[in-house]
Amino acid sequence: MVFSRCPKDRPTESQRPKMTDKTTMTDNMMTSLGLDRPESGDDTVVPFTLDKLDTRGRTVRLGDALDTILSRHNYPAPVARLLGEAVVLAALIGSSLKFAGKFIMQTQTDGPVNLIVVDFDAPDGLRGYARFDHDMLVKAAEEGRTKPAELLGKGHLAMTIDQGEHMERYQGIVALEGNSLEDVAHTYFMQSEQIPTQVRLAVAEFTQKGDHRPHWRAGGMLVQHLPEHGMSHIPDLPGDGDFSNPETADPHFEEDDGWNEAKALMATLDDLELADPELSSERLLFRLYHETGVRVFPPMPVVERCTCSADRIEDMLSTSFTAEDREEMAVDGEIEVVCEFCSTAYHFNPHQFDVKN
Ligand SMILES: [Zn+2]
Predict the structure, then answer these.
(1) Do residues 231 and 101 share a domain?
(2) Alpha carbon distance 68, 83 (integer Å)
(3) Do both 258 and 189 map to the same domain?
(4) DSSP states of 189-214 as a string?
(5) pTM metric for this prediction
(6) What is the CATH number of the domain that holds 202?
(7) Do 286 and 316 reside in the same domain of the chain?
């Protein structure tokens, strides 16, 4: 297992609920927590509210969906971990789309991992890939600089909401300056929607009995301060847009008590709990927020799904390129296009387009 933090808060074995017969015990446990359904498993997003704290949120747990995305490309572990974080973040944000559409998250930076693209195709499809510079990655590993934020380096992150051709595209851009994706999410929501937001992301490699290789899994949580009446109480946007800069931040600003409590409790979460295969979202939320009260909603499934197709690529080859371009692209009389997300290879005859034009 690979974790970037010390698992100091992990409950001991004796504190964990014992489950001898998983199905019946699980149902019982959930009923005792006031839930009339079994707890959710991997590859689900669970929305929740902390009514007393004027806070809403979502948790995500990814198993097979993430493992498929990461293991397909056989990325070096630090790259896989960073892309994994991006996939968790895209699932947390994209799953809030209330319409058919797409949420696209893309980083462009000068670090060893220079490009990450993850998209969430509503209501449930996730896909993603990363590009990295092999030499820079080797050097970073030698120097011990392989934390996700260090691999990104400087540049920007763009979040795009695409609701189809009849709706306006929305795009928000946040500067990346050696900060983590967790921090970037906070800045993004402050700048674009002025909603105080806190995000936690954890990616881990697990090997279970009988596995012939380790599997990637991940967990994440997003909470937002959204009072039912009126606006969130947030500081004025500093001139430089940086809320953590003491020189420009409002020194008299005091955050809402409920929101402070929601954040403080979330800060006690460790990576092990977030990615623990034995700990459901419901149980995790109950552990964190049982004293203030937490309301959980039905889980929303997520799957690994690529949206590429021969038709789309054929269309792209036909409209974006000339006959001459296509002739040049052909090798041994055939154009091969490989999808960067899912590695599916598509083959075309450069002359099959001649008829259309
Ligand atoms: Zn594909």
Answers:
(1) yes
(2) 12
(3) yes
(4) HHHHT---EEEEEEEEEE--TT-SS-
(5) 0.84
(6) 3.55.30.10
(7) no
Q: What is the CATH number of the domain that holds 346?
A: 3.90.1280.10
For residue range 65-86, list pLDDT tens digits in order: 999 999 999 999 999 999 999 9
Picking from 164, 143, 128, 131, the residue whose alpha carbon sits closest to that of residue 342 is: 128
pLDDT of residue 220: 98
The answer on 286 and 325 residing in a single domain is: no
CA of 68 to the centre of ligand 1 (A): 13
173 CA distance to ligand 1 middle (Å): 25
Are 341 and 106 spatial neighbours (Cβ–Cβ below 8 Å)? no
Expressed in angstroms and rounded, the spacing between residue 340 Cα and the centre of ligand 1 is: 7
355: pLDDT strictly greater than 70:
no
Ligand 1 centre to CA of 345 (Å) is: 9
Number of domains comprising the chain: 2
Q: Which residues surround ligand 1, an ion (CB under 5 A)?
A: 306, 308, 339, 341-342, 344
Gap between the Cα atoms of 272 and 264, Å rounded: 18
Q: What is the pLDDT of residues 27-52, one digit of tens each?
A: 445 666 677 788 999 999 999 999 99
Same domain? For 144 and 73 the reply is yes
Domain identity same for 198 and 71: yes
